[in-house]
Prior knowledge:
Helix content: under 10%
Number of strands: 11
Structural class: mainly beta
Radius of gyration: 13 Å
Largest sheet: 7 strands, mixed
Shape: globular
Strand content: over 45%
Number of helices: 0
Distance between the termini: 40 Å
Order of helices and strands: EEEEEEEEEEE
Amino acid sequence: QVQLVESGGGLVQAGGSLRLSCAASGRTFSSTAMAWFRQAPGKERAIVAAINWGGGSSYYADSVKARFTISRDNAKNTVYLQMNSLKPEDTAVYYCAADTNGAGWGYWGQGTQVTVSS
């Protein structure tokens, strides 16, 4: 079992920045791939960024490339999402997810709201 708790969401003006954190517990975090997803009202949940267990490989959705950065600190069992140059279309509930065995994103946090005002 893996427990995930997100934090860091909030209200920010367009062009601003936020850093989301996801604290993990319950299993060996350092061997777990991690990701951030988001879901806007009326839309499906979609992946934003992902990072492998060692932090040496990452993926970004085209819509956030060059603006968002995913990172992890295995000593703190935490994954981060640094979000810069935020746009109103980034408004969504952001979820942290974990893939512990390569079978998919089987563990999810409760989500944190990010609202970007124009």
